[in-house]
Amino acid sequence: MKDKSKDMSHIVKTQRNVIGGENWYGENFKNKIDGLTEAQAFERPVARVHTVAELISHITVWRDSIIGKLKGQPTGLTMESPENWKDNELLKQEGWERLKREFYESAETLVGLLEKREDAFLEETYNGNGHDWRRLLEGLIQHDIYHLGQIAITLKLME
Fold it and tell me: What is the pTM of this model?
């Protein structure tokens, strides 16, 4: 990217690092989920704790919603939407490999869309709600890191 797009470049780099790069907190999604078996992905170590599969599905659903917004498509995803937190048994039918593949594909799609944008885009608002793209995209990164931490705790409880 050009120098004038340093903020967007930073967002893209941070998104890539959260997925599979180096982070100061030492973890990324590839470290945490690539070696998991199907059984591990769907294991609930403690009641009311999300499985890794549920967390990965949830992250992907929200990322896909933002991808839709970037493409100008209306998205109706809310906290109350059934796809926000899909049931573990339903996710088992989809399978762990598919969930992982969709997770990584959505990350690449997002990065691909962002790489085409300049910094000025970050100040534009979306959906007429007064929030700008910078807030949304930085929030998405925070959302991913938050749930990466939950995955780490879930895996620790499974030891």
Answer: 0.93
